[in-house]
């Protein structure tokens, strides 16, 4: 996963859902993307393990302006947002559960 991007902050208005209290796993998907389904399962599971973490999935085709703004080039793309909506990590492709948990460590502040 790539490092922090302090230039972008996302909120409920941009992603269409409330941010997690501590962090948000933001997934860009497309309808016929097989790895997107597996990514959804992984992120849902991790969000359920960590209090205050939300998983939000966005259909890339329905949010082309946001896709362009964030330079999402493929699906799945996962952005890890901190409590303030700053992008802490980003990755393309199907992530491993251990990598998602490690990325959350950079986003979650106690």
Automatic annotation (TrEMBL):
Domain Thioredoxin: from-to ranges: 21-102
Domain of life: Bacteria
InterPro entries found in the cross-reference section: Thioredoxin-like_sf (IPR036249), Thioredoxin_domain (IPR013766)
A Pfam family that the UniProt record links to this protein: Thioredoxin
Name this polypeptide is given: Thiol reductase thioredoxin
